[in-house]
User: What shape does this take?
Amino acid sequence: MLPANFILTRGAGSMIELETIASKMYFRGCCIAAESTVLGVAKLAGYTTITDIRMTGSMDNDVELKAKLALEQIVHHDIFYVHLKAPDVMGLMMNH
Assistant: This one.
């Protein structure tokens, strides 16, 4: 077996107060996604996060819902990140 080159701890320590990139750069961001990791990073960046149970983060994802939500929020935000996982999933399937 190869030796370990890092240790991943989950839930250790406490979160420090961070200035978000959104407040530092004076913009309002919005992230529309299903995956908790993506939503968590967006929250750390200061983005408004939007999710729905119809967003699965997989091939059966409701892309039209994501587009509808983005259009509803466009007047309130300067920049959007709409996460689409299906291209990643298909890429993995094509390589195996």
